[in-house]
Write a structure and sequence with these properties.
One of its GO terms (molecular function) is acetyl-CoA C-acyltransferase activity. The chain has 370 residues and is α+β, with helices and mostly antiparallel strands. The chain is built from eleven helices and eleven strands. The strands form three sheets. Strands 1, 2, 3, 4, 5, 10 and 11 form a seven-stranded mixed β-sheet that branches. Helix 3 crosses helix 11.
Length: 370
């Protein structure tokens, strides 16, 4: 088996919903990070890239028909560079990295690029296709930005169709995560993001996005829009919960945003041949299914599976990047895994920086490599 290393990782700034990146297509966002990897690594022969693997979960609009391939071509890569798009919803970007690493490990390629792209702002509305010539009665129009649509009735009956905030409430109740604990965790995340941005810790991974606006002309988006550096515990505590008697609020939940990220992987042998110094080594990945109503606890089972497989323990980890879809979910995972919060998400995560949900996990690699 070939040893796999990560050479470089980049991302766009994160645009809030209907924010600075609202007019940028998801395939263009993907092309921006792919182009950046090519320009930042001139010694890498682009025609030797075996595959570009992107995570994307919407796929209902401009990101349809294999957005990874579209982004690859838009980035000016040779037509012989293949591309594929994966969908594991929130885990799609991480799945793309794992897919790329496995290709290299088994000798199916020496250079592979992984990542993800998503424009939640530009996700379209969809409706069911008529099953007969003339539809009768009211028709449902679904917003594909987030949530269930066209659900199989057996799935709904068996597992329910809880929204993501509802699953976070379920986790909070199951694992006794209080509102105060959630707000404090969100506040710490915001402050960590503020510090990381102010001291330039994230600058190396950021790729500016050029915007052409009829009113303001051309300008560049260079910073994340989602952080709230003026957050206080008082402000967070004052927010109303999303559900009656609930604990999840807009302040302790991640946002609906836009962005893209990409990671350059190759075999260590190829990196040595090209004279490149890796940012990190890829060790392995694991997945695990859980009850859908508490889906946010999934990282606990996947992490334990991987640690057991490679013979590591959480106590031996100096830096940990953990999905923060909701404070309730993150805290439940931290408690169940026995993690030291001081080394978890040291640069802030979802509430503070991002969550274009399909590319988020590839950015976890960016932060962990800083």
């Amino acid at each position: 088996m070939e040893e796999v290393v990560i050479i470089d990782a980049v991302r766009t700034p994160i645009g809030r919903y209907n924010g600075a990146l609202r007019d940028v297509r998801p395939d263009d966002l993907g092309a921006i990070v792919l182009r950046a990897l090519k320009e930042r690594n001139p010694q890498v022969p682009i025609d030797e890239v075996e595959e570009v693997v992107f995570g994307n979960a919407n796929g209902a609009g401009e990101d349809n028909r294999n957005v990874a391939r579209m982004s690859t071509l838009l980035a000016g890569y040779p037509v012989q560079v293949a591309a594929t798009t994966l969908n594991r919803l929130c885990g799609s970007g991480l799945d793309a990295v794992a897919y790329a690493a496995r290709m290299i490990a088994v000798g199916e390629g020496e250079i592979v690029i992984a990542g993800g792209t998503e424009s939640m702002t530009r996700a379209p509305y969809v409706m069911e296709k008529p099953g007969q010539s003339y539809m009768r009665g009211d028709q449902t129009l679904y917003d594909t930005t987030i949530g269930w649509r066209f659900v199989h009735p057996v799935m709904e009956e068996t597992y329910g169709v809880d929204s993501m905030p509802e699953t976070a409430e379920n986790v909070a109740k199951t694992y006794s995560i209080s509102r105060l604990a959630q707000d404090h965790f969100a506040y710490v995340s915001q402050m960590r993001a503020k510090e990381a941005m102010e001291c330039g810790r994230l600058d190396e991974e950021l790729v500016p996005v050029e915007i052409e606006d009829k009113k303001n002309g051309k300008y560049e988006v260079r910073t994340d829009e989602h952080p709230r550096p003026t957050s206080t515990m008082e402000k967070l505590n004052s927010l109303s919960p999303l559900f009656e008697n609930g604990t999840v609020t807009a302040g302790n939940a991640s946002g609906i945003n836009d962005g893209a990220a990409a990671v350059l992987l190759m075999s260590r042998k190829k990196a040595n041949e090209l004279g490149l110094t890796p940012l990190a080594s890829y060790i392995g990945a694991a997945t695990a299914g859980v009850e859908p109503r508490i889906m946010g606890i999934g990282p606990v089972y996947a992490t334990n599976k991987l640690l057991n497989r490679i013979g590591w323990t959480v106590n031996g980890l100096d830096l940990i990047e953990l999905n923060e879809a909701f404070a309730a979910q993150a805290l439940a995972c931290i408690h169940e895994l026995g993690l030291n919060q001081e080394v978890v998400n040291v640069n802030g995560r979802c509430y503070s920086i991002w969550s274009p949900i399909r590319r988020q996990w590839s950015e976890n690699f960016n932060n962990a490599s800083l």
